[in-house]
Predict the structure.
Amino acid sequence: MVKKRYGLVFALTLAFLLTTVGSAVAVESGRYQAMQISVGKKNEYNIFILDTKEGHMWLLETRESRIDGKLFGGLKYQGKLRPGKKAGDVIFEFGKTE
């Protein structure tokens, strides 16, 4: 049952992204990459989605209801990646003291 829910949620999310980002016909093959990230219970998961052309990122978060076991969640925009000028460029630093 979870696999069917996962497939449906993923298909609906991808369809949503394709219609909001641009025409599905104009999208290059492999432009959007998705990776499942396990969290909490085995029925709960997040899906990280990356637009490999423009650098946009989304996170589809799901949770299982404690009452009836149904999945619910939301799609959150995570921002846009910034490319470096050459391989090895540091794009962001944190926790560095001088």
Remarks:
- The helical segments are 2-21.
- The mean pLDDT is 77.
- Residues 2-6+28-80 form one domain.
